[in-house]
């Protein structure tokens, strides 16, 4: 599965996970929204949760700071899906739900879509990458076993209670 990211360039370049993924040739970075290919767009504002039923050839993430991650920034062509409840392992947002870096979002999506080895590979350049999968092992396994978005939302509800 191809991984793509639209790069806003508004966060700290030293901490930018998408730029590091590009250096390791694990993601294609796009600096123009018009060049981002059609695919499953990871969008926290989407009305439907990502599920195994959304299997596609491409995953697309928006790389920007959380301060500018407004709904308008996700105006990309594609099938928009929100990631369900996951906890961040990155040093800046460790333990905070839904505050994932670009690489965490891509890895979580890959796991939900059954691409376990690919998820592990994209996290390898980060010393905390394995921790992300460990912290979220149970919910990721449960989401990956769901048939559709409705089931994913039902599982997510258990974690949010």
How does this model look, in words?
- The radius of gyration is 14 Å and the shape is globular.
- The mean pLDDT is 90.
- It has one domain (2-160).
- Helix 1 links the parallel strand 1 (2-7) and strand 2.
- It is of the alpha/beta class.
- Helix 2 (102-112) runs antiparallel to helix 3 and helix 5 packs antiparallel against helix 6 (149-160).
- It has six helices and five strands; from the N terminus they run E-H-E-E-E-E-H-H-H-H-H.
Instruction: Specify the biggest β-sheet.
Output: 5 strands, parallel
- What's the number of extended β-strand segments? 5
Global morphology: globular
Global structural class: alpha/beta
The overall pLDDT, averaged over residues, is: 90
Distance between the termini: 33 Å
What string gives the helices and strands in order?
EHEEEEHHHHH
By DSSP (H or I, 4+ residues per run), the number of helices equals 6
In total, how many domains does the architecture comprise?
Answer: 1
Low-confidence stretches: none
Q: What Rg do the Cα atoms give?
A: 14 Å
Strand order of the biggest β-sheet: 2-1-4-3-5
- Helical content stands at 25-40%
Binding site for S-adenosyl-L-methionine: 17, 62, 83, 102
Family: Belongs to the TDD superfamily. TSR3 family.
Keywords: Cytoplasm, Ribosome biogenesis, rRNA processing, S-adenosyl-L-methionine, Transferase
Enzyme class: transferase
């Amino acid at each position: 599965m191809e991984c793509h990211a639209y790069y806003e360039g508004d966060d700290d370049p030293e901490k930018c996970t998408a730029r590091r993924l590009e250096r390791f040739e694990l993601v294609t970075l796009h600096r123009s929204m018009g060049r981002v290919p059609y695919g499953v767009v990871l969008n926290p504002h989407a009305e439907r949760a990502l599920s195994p039923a959304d299997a596609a050839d491409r995953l697309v993430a928006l790389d920007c700071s959380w301060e500018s991650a407004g709904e308008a920034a996700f105006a990309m062509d594609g099938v928009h899906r929100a990631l369900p409840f996951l906890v961040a392992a990155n040093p800046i947002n460790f333990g905070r739900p839904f505050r994932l870096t670009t690489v965490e979002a891509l890895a979580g999506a890959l796991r939900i879509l059954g691409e376990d080895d690919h998820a592990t590979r994209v996290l390898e350049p980060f010393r905390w990458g394995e921790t992300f999968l460990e912290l979220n092992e149970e919910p990721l396994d449960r989401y990956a076993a769901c048939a559709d978005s409705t089931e994913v939302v039902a599982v997510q509800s258990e974690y949010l209670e």
